[in-house]
Design goal:
heterodimer, A: 5 helices, B: 2 strands, about 80% helix
């Protein structure tokens, strides 16, 4: 599509959508949101960019192949689930580490749960973009 | 203990990741084969343990049921897992010769294994929302597989496929929402008890929403249009795994929900299913009669055969459910095999359009034998597996004085023979219109082995099920009893220990 208005608008919208997607991803830890919806929102940022400026430009902006992003995401998500086995727990049992925890301070919690969400984000983001780019290029 | 249930799910995902890493080299396809072989082993272990224990359940993430996601295997689930793994192995061997380097670079093996993981997940989950997630995983992976190659008719079929499946997904999600609003739980075992206090009228409405959602997935009349529109376009390996497994996930979901949760008003829900089953059988087989391409004929026969399985569910007697389970197992093997054979015929004779090929019986007699077995098993010839499957379902219909539906089932069987005979006559008996002799010897040995071995293996299984049906029958009986009296299922899920 060759519309100057869309191209000008997309520059702001894409960035906003991607930012919002990361917000949704992190918010999902304790409130509605999460990796799946975050990945969907993030992919719409790039889809909008692809519609406005063409898939070549969108692929260049993404740098990595979307399929690669999806597979890395799948690996992270699966790794987060399987890591429970190292601690003798059932598949997907969350493993927590509290960085800098002292007797009074709780410290910064780091968990496989968050890693799983990041993995899901990347898997959804990559696979949706892979499909959409392929469709855009075929038609 | 919980890892027995987890492994059949994680193996395909791990395989997908490694197959994707090595997609540029030939190692990728062998990783897929090795992964599928490991999957067969893992699901066999699951089956053996399930036979020992009756029902297995494990709570993912150490969250106790009904709050967390439970993985659960009763005999039906475990058997479906084994069959899925067997089909995955057969198709991944077949793909060694069928999938070109372009499709491999585009990530065929990764998508294929993700699809298998989705199917496994749908069979093993005990949670309704989790089932929805697996449906989504399957949908995304199968759409990717469907449009690999990028031919216009593939995109056309793919868009129809996704559009109709999305409608089904939305209905499914709506049903889930309503059910959660009514009962406050989505754990299937917990639901079985919770729906007893729900408003039966409202519950019937929700049941119909689920029926339509799963009906689209299972390609039931009148919601099957996406199937014949899309199944003849992709690679043969892809259409074989679709034909074998995808619609059967819908049937499985129907069987699970309508024996475990929606059995409050059988006179209403199962009466609808009975009508749908009859119409699905009849319309499917009539649609097939009008087609002239092997894969299109087979696609319509998927629809027609689904009717028999749903008939088993609709009658809801012990024998009928035995028939449905037996039919499910028999059909997956036979149908996937027929699509694989269509691929071999296409490879050596040049097409799948019946008017453009021929002479396979004279020049490729071994292939003719291999086609004969699943084709006439599908049509219900004794002593092949399809005969027993049809026999049980029809007998179950006669036992409850369902004369009309039994007659429909028998006539549809006859018309199935007509379609199979048509393929047999046109592709195998009449000489090739171009005067060539399509022979298996024209293929390179490695290609030939990769194409014929899985076909022969699946045909052998069809014969074995047909000749010694006793073991499979008593297995199906136990599985059907678990479905009819799901007490063990419910108690195992709700009491599964959090380790």
């Amino acid at each position: 599509m060759n519309s100057i208005i869309l191209i000008a608008g997309t520059r702001y919208l894409s960035a906003l959508l991607i930012l919002f997607s990361i917000y949704a991803l992190l918010r999902g830890h304790n409130e509605p949101g999460g990796g799946f919806i975050g990945g969907l929102i993030g992919s719409t940022g790039f889809i909008l960019y692809a519609i406005a400026c063409g898939t070549d430009q969108a692929r260049r902006a993404l740098r990595a192949r979307p399929e690669t992003v999806a597979m890395i995401g799948l690996a992270i998500a699966l790794g987060a689930g399987l890591s429970a086995a190292l601690f003798g727990d059932v598949f997907f049992t969350g493993q927590w580490l509290f960085l800098g925890a002292t007797e009074t301070e709780k410290g910064l919690p780091v968990s496989t749960v968050l890693a799983f969400d990041v993995g899901v984000y990347m898997a959804v983001f990559g696979s949706i973009l892979g499909l959409v780019f392929a469709m855009e290029e075929e038609i | 203990m919980s890892w027995v249930l987890v492994l059949p799910l994680t193996i395909p995902f791990v395989t997908a990741i490694f197959a994707f890493l090595f997609r540029e080299q030939s190692a990728g396809r062998w990783i897929s084969v090795a992964g599928s072989a490991a999957l067969v082993a893992a699901s066999l272990v699951l089956l053996v343990q399930t036979i020992d224990a009756g029902v297995l359940a494990a709570q993912m993430g150490s969250w106790a049921a009904p709050f967390g996601v439970t993985l659960v295997a009763d005999l039906l689930s475990a058997a479906m897992a084994v069959i899925t793994a067997i089909i995955a192995l057969a198709v991944s061997v077949y793909a060694l010769a069928d999938i070109d380097a372009d499709a491999e670079r585009a990530g065929y093996h990764a998508l294929f294994n993700v699809l298998i993981a989705g199917v496994m997940g749908a069979f093993l989950t005990g949670d309704l929302f989790n089932l929805y997630v697996w449906f989504e995983v399957m949908l995304i992976a199968s759409f990717g597989l469907l449009i690999l190659g990028g031919k216009p008719e593939q995109i056309d079929g793919g868009v129809k496929y996704v559009a109709l499946n999305l409608i089904s997904t939305i209905l499914f999600l709506t049903g889930i929402g309503l059910l959660y609003g009514m009962t406050g739980t989505l754990n299937m075992a917990d639901l079985a008890g919770a729906v007893e206090s729900a408003d039966p009228g409202l519950l019937s409405v929700v049941a119909v929403a689920f029926m339509v959602a799963f009906g689209v997935k299972a390609a039931l009349f009148p919601l099957f249009f996406w199937l014949p529109a899309s199944y003849h376009t992709p690679h043969f390996a892809v259409s074989a795994v679709f034909a074998g497994l995808l619609t059967k996930v819908g049937v499985y979901a129907l069987i699970r929900m309508f024996t475990l949760v929606f059995d409050h008003d059988i006179g209403f829900t199962h009466e609808i299913l009975l009508w749908i089953a009859g119409l699905t059988m009849a319309i499917g087989v009539l649609g097939a009669a009008a087609q002239n391409d092997i894969r299109k004929i087979l696609s319509f026969h998927i629809v027609s055969q689904i009717g028999y399985m749903v008939l088993g569910l609709a009658l809801m007697t012990p024998l009928a459910l035995v028939g449905a389970v037996f039919y499910l197992i028999h059909h997956i093997i036979v149908k996937a095999n027929l699509f694989l054979i269509a691929g071999v015929a296409d490879r050596i004779a040049g097409d799948t359009d019946l008017s453009r090929i021929g002479g396979l019986y004279k020049s490729a007699p071994f292939l003719a034998v291999l086609f004969f077995i699943p084709a006439f098993s599908l049509a219900g010839f004794p002593p092949l597996s399809g005969f027993w499957a049809k026999f049980i379902v029809v007998k179950a219909a006669l036992d409850v004085q369902g004369w009309v539906i039994a007659a429909v089932a028998l006539v549809v069987g006859l018309l199935t023979i007509y379609s199979m005979t048509k393929i047999w006559a046109e592709a195998f008996w009449t000489p090739h219109p171009d005067g060539v002799d399509p022979s298996l010897a024209t293929l390179a040995p490695a290609t030939r082995n990769a194409l014929v071995l899985p076909v022969a293996g699946l045909a052998l299984m069809t014969v074995v099920i047909g000749l010694v049906p006793g073991g499979f029958m008593s297995f199906a009986e136990t599985a059907a009893n678990q479905l009819l009296v799901p007490d063990a299922y419910i108690s195992t899920v709700l009491e599964a220990r959090v380790e």
